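Now for today's protein.

===
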Amino acid sequence: MGNRPLTVVAALAAVALGGCRDGVPPFTPVERPVEGPAYALTFGYGQDADPRWSPAGDTVLYHTTQFGPVPNVPGILLAVPAHGGAAVPVMPDLQRSGGRPFATPAYSPDGVHVAYMDMMSIDVLVACSRLETLPDGSQEPRSCTPLQPVLDSALLRVRRIGELRSVSLDPALTVRFDGPDPARRAGSLDTWEDRFHPFQARYRAEHAFLFRPSWAPDGERITYSDGLSVRIWQVGAATAAQVPGTGDGVSPAWSPDGEWIAYTVLPRADSIVHECNCAVGRESVQAIRTVYVDGPGTLVLVRPDGSERIMLGEGEDPAWSPDGAHIYVRRDDAIVRVPRAGGQAVVIAGTDRGRSPAVSPDGSRLAFSRRKPTQTTTDYDIWVVSLEQ
């Protein structure tokens, strides 16, 4: 994918300011002091999520569901200086008002490219109801399942930072998320069957994008999840290979030496089946919806070829330390450090309500997405905490 060095902030600023005549104007937030071992890096309204460090450690890349200069797009890729400052769009030539949302950005090892998910389709459930028999024998319609979006399909894309050519020329891979009934896509109005697998249930509950791409150290391969397994894509290939034995594996992260992939297995335990009647215009169809009960995930290590697996206890959203000795995960609504060889996990101070950790290249800082204490589960800011306390 190339190996020319790039100063990320300078390159992004150049694109935002003058790389494209119709580009997004730069966003200048209110200046806030950055002090102490833990500090807020963003102050948005919505979900600032999935931070990733630039290889130089001077920039944090993330996506947000709300960004004033680009309205009506529920997914913008932004970069912000790691010590605070103005956030700028990573690809202002692509992300415009009313466009498709982008999510889960990741720098290539050389910092020249960015991998991300272009969310082609996020489905919205149709209102359904079921008849419930009351104590007096009468029947009353009751809600079958909440009206919440589900993941349908995306494109895993790779783009050179500052590139202005057509996005159709960039390497891309179609990712289909199982769950919505394929017959519905084909226009059938007889019976729908929606399956809210654990990853779909988690997306509905937390708006969590658990399919995030992670680069191999060679800069030529990317691991990601389709929600049902961990997969590896040779950038530019037409298909991706499934890593054997990774059922219900999400949020993969490639180790610094390339020997392991850490990921989370979501539990597929109990489930609830709803049989509903849905009104679609003047038509009524039967809907069968299977919803899996959510629960904590398990941290697992696997060889890229699936030949060896190691269980390391509870943990989600894994991120490796630069030396590969530790893995940082979300556990009990905080970030903890788990020894790669097994042993006692350590809670990182100042990371309560945190998820999606990312360790700086020098191992001294941890960026993570932190839920606001008085807000909903989808209202997060990006925080940075020192690991040298």
Remarks:
- The first strand starts at residue 38 and ends at 40.
- Confidence is low (pLDDT under 50) at residues 2-8, 10-24.
